[in-house]
Design brief:
The chain is an alpha+beta fold. 62% of the residues lie in helices and 13% in strands. It has 5 helices and 5 strands; from the N terminus they run αββββαααβα. It has a 5-stranded antiparallel sheet with strand order 4-3-2-1-5. It is elongated.
């Protein structure tokens, strides 16, 4: 049981770190090696100064919903971890971590919704006249999709986890 508890805690922290990276980093859509777009900025690489020049993204309703859902996912996962730590020290023996599992599952569902919206509405989100076939999804988008099953699995494991001591 201790091994499961430690493994679940590590899984939770790794997933939370992946969520933070997916939400805050600059690589949701890559047009070329010198131009990338994320949830917050459009960035161009300036070869003369060897720096990234970034401007705020154009606001669209779809983009704002993806931003809100990703932030909610991070918030739900963070609350879930803090509640888990609190329950670990205050819950009576034999108790289940229902609220922790529920928060973690909500984090998974909000992440899933954000990824789906970005997948199906990227034309409206990117506001670009260019052909989308010239771009590709970036690693942050892939990280966000990888977080979905990890969040849902850890949510289910929290629900089934009992406090032994």
């Amino acid at each position: 049981m201790v091994f499961l508890l430690v493994s679940l805690t590590v899984l939770h922290l790794v997933t939370l770190a992946m969520l933070l990276i997916a939400t805050l980093e600059k690589s949701w859509w890559i047009w070329a090696d010198s131009e990338i777009t994320d949830l917050w900025y459009n960035c161009f690489h300036d070869n003369a100064t060897q720096t990234w020049l970034c401007a705020a993204t154009n606001d669209s309703d779809w983009l704002q919903s993806v931003q809100a859902l990703m932030v909610l996912s991070v918030v739900f996962s963070s609350i879930s971890f803090l509640v888990f730590l609190g329950q670990l020290f205050t819950m009576s023996r034999g108790g289940l971590f229902y609220f922790t599992g529920l928060c973690q599952a909500f984090a998974g569902f909000t992440d899933f919704a954000a990824c789906l919206i970005f997948t199906f509405h990227r034309k409206e989100i990117l506001h670009d006249s260019r052909d989308l076939s010239k771009g590709r999804f970036g690693y942050c988008f892939i990280l966000a999709w990888l977080c979905v099953p990890l969040l849902l699995i850890s949510g289910v494991l929290y629900v089934h986890l009992r406090k032994k001591q």
